[in-house]
């Protein structure tokens, strides 16, 4: 019998039917955070069996996956054991053991996107090198190994200078800015020193940050979502506006850069391409995520096919769905922890309370085990008949405007 209990952690349901109308393939996701949770939600609509691997027993996806396995996706043995139980492995985080995935691929495990792609992306320096070799426009960059090479980079690129960790970066946590030569050593120290592999990028004085979600099917066909604008707060994605308010020419250029970048990588699935738009109309690549992405959360409510459903369709080899918007405008607002523990929870609770009264607002609470400052705790997507109306609805949700909007 089906037991939907959230306590059924690590226990597999024994009700396998011989046939599934869509796919009998068991999809294993490395990671069980909010992206995994939203993949599980999409899978549930189509009754696709999804297994998740995450170190947390009560991770956001754990209660929704067909089978949640507790284990470290960065530990080769855990990944190997997990992969044995799946017909196909995909990711919701790129910081996984890609070397093990490559070995497993050689043994016949189906990994989408390919381990080679995850290997390139998870090392941001390697990623930049890869895209520069493929003629994708991006900010100049170079590796630094010691204070002398950092100073050389500073005199070459000028200040401010962006210093980044090559690995394990997310939400800007692996980035530090040096505003002068004197600040170089403290910025490097803030990232953990030269023991962590670092590189630098020329500062890009962008006018906007844009993002394109690209889907690629197993047959290689590519489909792009509309260009969106991402607005960051403390290096963390905070607000996404869909569609982006930029000239048609810029949209075309963004789609072109995004498609070119994705075409240089192997495997099926969703890829998010983060871009900088400069004052003189250039579109430069910031980074690519080889998975569903924060800048595509809005697609759940605003597009005919969400990025999560599209990812499943892509990795399973099903026809890709329609990525176009079914609502004229949408804004996604990340609920970032404003405080630790109870006080932070109270503020989030108040925000959600206001969101419940806003027309067109959909609430996503990830149910993470604890509230932390600047942690992504949930998000709210507001849709509406025009961007101005959606913006007014956002203002009323944030209490910036006392007047009711409809
Ligand atoms: P994510 O959560 O998107 O994976 P991350 O930790 O990988 O974040 P980046 O995307 O490298 O970090 O950078 C975070 C933000 O820092 C960017 O969205 C942008 O606002 C700013 N930034 C990054 N690189 C540069 C640059 N070269 N010049 C100016 N600003 C930059
Ligand atoms: Mg990143
Ligand atoms: Mg980024």
Secondary-structure element series? EHEEHEHHHEHEEHEEEEEHEEHHEHEEH
Uncertain segments: 1-11
Tally of helical segments? 12
Report the average pLDDT across residues. 93
For the biggest sheet, the summary is:
9 strands, antiparallel
Oligomeric state as shown: single chain
Number of strands: 17
Task: Estimate percent helicity.
Answer: 25-40%
- The shape, in one word, is globular
Q: Return Rg in Å.
A: 21 Å
Percent range for β-strand residues = 15-25%
Our measurement of the CA-to-CA distance between the termini, rounded to an integer number of angstroms, reads 45 Å
Bound molecules: adenosine-5'-triphosphate, magnesium ion
The helix/strand class is alpha+beta
Organism: Dioscorea zingiberensis
Domain ATP-grasp: 128-316
EC number: 4.1.1.21
GO biological process, one term: 'de novo' IMP biosynthetic process
Q: What labels would you give this structure?
A:
406 residues; alpha+beta; nine-stranded antiparallel sheet; four-stranded parallel sheet; 12 helices; 30% helix; disordered N terminus; binds adenosine-5'-triphosphate; binds magnesium ion; EC 4.1.1.21; ATP binding; lyase
Q: How would you concisely characterize the structure shown here?
A:
The chain is of the alpha+beta class. The protein has helices spanning 34-45, 76-84, 98-106, 115-122, 124-133, 147-157, 184-190, 248-263, 299-302, 307-316, 341-355, 387-397, and strands at 27-30, 50-54, 67-70, 88-91, 141-144, 161-165, 175-178, 198-202, 206-216, 222-224, 228-233, 236-242, 269-278, 283-289, 329-336, 361-365, 376-384.
């Amino acid at each position: 019998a089906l037991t939907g209990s959230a306590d059924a952690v690590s226990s597999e349901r024994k009700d396998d039917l011989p046939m599934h109308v869509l796919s009998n393939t068991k999809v294993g996701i490395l990671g069980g955070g909010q992206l995994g949770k939203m993949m599980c939600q999409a899978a549930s609509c189509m009754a696709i069996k999804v297994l998740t691997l995450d170190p947390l027993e009560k991770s956001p996806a754990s209660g929704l996956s067909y089978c949640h396995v507790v284990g470290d996706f960065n530990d080769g043995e855990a990944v190997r054991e997990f992969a044995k139980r799946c017909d196909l492995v995909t990711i919701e985080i790129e910081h996984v053991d890609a070397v093990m995935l490559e070995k497993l691929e050689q043994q016949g495990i189906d990994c989408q996107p390919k381990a080679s792609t995850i290997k390139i992306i998870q090392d941001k320096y390697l990623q930049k090198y890869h895209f520069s070799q493929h003629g994708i426009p991006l900010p100049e960059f170079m590796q630094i190994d010691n204070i002398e090479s950092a100073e050389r980079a500073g005199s070459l690129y000028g200040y401010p200078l962006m210093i980044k960790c090559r690995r394990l970066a997310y939400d800007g946590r692996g980035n530090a800015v040096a505003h002068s030569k004197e600040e170089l050593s403290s910025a490097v120290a803030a990232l953990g020193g030269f023991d962590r592999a670092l590189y630098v990028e020329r500062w890009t004085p962008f006018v906007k940050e844009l993002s394109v979600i690209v889907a690629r099917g197993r047959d290689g066909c590519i489909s792009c979502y509309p260009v969106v604008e991402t607005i960051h707060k403390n290096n963390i994605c905070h607000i996404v506006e869909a569609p982006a308010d930029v000239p048609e020419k810029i949209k075309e250029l963004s789609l072109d850069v995004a498609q070119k970048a994705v075409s240089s990588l192997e495997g099926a699935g969703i890829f998010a391409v983060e871009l900088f738009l400069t004052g003189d109309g250039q579109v430069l690549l910031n980074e690519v995520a080889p998975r569903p992405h924060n800048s595509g959360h809005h697609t759940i409510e605003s597009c005919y096919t969400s990025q999560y459903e599209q990812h499943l369709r892509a990795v399973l080899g099903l026809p890709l769905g329609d990525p176009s918007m079914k609502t004229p405008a949408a804004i996604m607002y990340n609920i970032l922890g404003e405080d630790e523990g109870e006080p932070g929870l109270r503020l989030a609770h108040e925000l959600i309370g206001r969101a419940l009264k806003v027309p067109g607002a959909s609430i996503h609470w990830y149910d993470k085990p604890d509230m932390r400052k600047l942690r992504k705790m949930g998000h709210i997507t507001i849709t509406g008949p025009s961007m101005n109306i959606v913006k007014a609805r956002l203002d009323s949700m944030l209490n910036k405007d006392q007047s009711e909007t409809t």
